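Notes from hallway chat w/ T.B., transcribed later so I don't forget. T.B. wanted the structure written out for a chain they're using in a teaching module, and asked if we could keep both sequence and structure tokens in one place. Agreed to drop them here.
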Amino acid sequence: MAKAKANPGTLSRVLKYIGRYKLLLPLSLLFALITVALTLYIPIIVGDAIDLIGKSPIDFEGIIQLFAFGAVLIGLTALSQWLMSTINNKISFGVVRDLRADAFRKIHKLPLSYIDKKQRGDIVNRVINDAEQFSEGLLLGFTQLFTGILTIVGTLAFMIYINWIVAIVVVVLTPLSLFIAKFIAKRTYSMFKSRSEAEAHATAYIEESVTNQKLIKAFAREDEALLGFDRANEQLRKSSLKAIFFSSLTNPTTRFVYSVVYAAVALTGALIAIACKDNGTFLGIGFTVGGLASLLSYANQYTKPFNEISGVITEFQNSLACASRVIELIDEVSESEDSEGAEELCDVVGRVELREVFFSYDPSRPLIENMSITAEPGERIAIVGPTGCGKTTLINLLVRFYDADSGEILIDGKDIKNVTRSSLRRAWGMVLQDNFIFHGTVHENIAVGKPNATRDEVIDAAKRAHAHGFIKRLSGGYDSILEEGGENLSLGERQLLAISRIMLDTPPILILDEATSSIDTRTEKRIQDAFGIMMNGRTSFIVAHRLSTVVNADKILVMRDGKIIESGRHDELLSKGGFYYELYNSQFAHE
């Protein structure tokens, strides 16, 4: 099976995000250089102090001066390292903030077809968890990569300066660790990507279970839900264990190589020091015990960054795998832009026309075929038919949640593809069967379409929607905090709030998609009266299963299998004895 490899495009995109902080990068490199330089100079001081101790008599004054100088260097090193870490934090968290912002911005530009096909939990996981994993890897890279590379170069230079023979031994053995790190890193990318996908699946499953907890309990599906989670959790465990186990091999294997390097330095250096003690020099090189101590310190510092960089490379594979999932979301094809020269839809009269419209979600399964409708200004158009006949799809086409495959949809004679989406959607007022209630006050939820509405305007709208009564019974009235999704409200109360939104800012064209489906019969009668007043003079599309709510419509469109098979007023359709007649009578027979 072919191994998944890090997409070079992902890395280049990450570098572009990092490039936004190009003014901070040189500062980070500068402080990394200062940190490494000061750190590497300390072993020289230690070696000089050891040589002073070996003198007779011992030069205590020189030793104290060296220690004092070393203490100052340690303090400056700590300050430089803190500044470097602060800058690296700013870069890495800034990059992830930008990545998340672009991803969230893209979500609002994606066509509904993408949102409908994807699990919500997967999208959330990309923006939150995958971005967080990327942040951790990026921060680790900035913190350890710069200093690691500089430390390797610096220690090698100092070792060559002290004893080039020992330095050659170190250089010869170094490729072993690089080979091991490369071998492991190449194989971890696919494992970490599999782990991210398993994590996204588990997140989506949890979100789905929490959201539908009432349904699970109502059908006693707790055991099945647990089994489903166990499967998702087990897959996450396996993929995580595999990725982490394989990546964790880096540390012990590279440490073994570094131990060999350290032992080789110690052995070679000790032999040279003994030869110098006997002969004064070895191959023309003078070498002392203090020099050997410095070399051992440098050998330790030289090998340590390789271990850290190996870990960084492994972690960076995880980061790139996570970043690729976020970037995949950002690169998804956006909802088509407004056409060039698209105009604002203003002063809408309300004439709506469909001309030979075709549409299907799946090309192999046609849905709406050759549909032509004309709604005159102020007309009330009811759309009825069995489940799945295309009623809601028609509404989606009218407001351009989806674009028709062919044909034209016009408002006041203007093709809706030639007007801006924002102005088109401002012309429509919608009350849907499923209405979203966001976390906020009752006032804020009603005024979502008119944020500058006064309290009196909001109350008046709620009264006309017959929502004022239950709102006043809430502990905080219009200032009561509603939970996300309106979990602390009944379905009917959520519906009343949605109706209040339309009552507050009534646009020229209305869509009522099962607007009273969750409301009791008595309240429905009063709301229907309010709707009657609201729809007066406005073009209205009423989608309804309950046919008693559409008997007063100016025109009833009867849909079946994506086609309009009958149209007319209620009495006309009943007198024909066709499909509408059967629907109407079967419904009342069941009632």
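Follow-up for T.B.: The chain has a mean pLDDT of 79. Might be a good example for the class.
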